[in-house]
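I'll show a record.
***
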Amino acid sequence: MGAIDLKSNIGLARIATYAQKNATVAVAGTEVAGFHGACFVLEVGAHTADGITVTYQDSDDNSTWADIPAAKLDFSTGASQDMALTADNDNATYYIGYKGSKRYIGAKITDAGSGDIILGIYVVKGYAKDIPQNS
């Protein structure tokens, strides 16, 4: 079997790198319209206080955002909508499948605590609708 061109069938977008405290950050979205599937990847480092939540959102126009209903997200790795980050679930990576149909997806980080955290949120897009043909 010959090699398959994986890079043309996926896309990756970092939508958040966060290392602040006491702030709400609406993360810029990424377009998923060119793909048949998408997955959020949440990487959580150690943190020093509770009060930080992550909420997944989608949009038709990349400006008006709404929380994604839990029925349109796959939380099989232990994550949840409005996930509170605590000492019990830090230092971990979570994969959240998106089953919605909006053009853009993103996330909102709310930090009502007084401690610090380092986290990253990525979107992996797969099953590209138009794959370049190898010559």
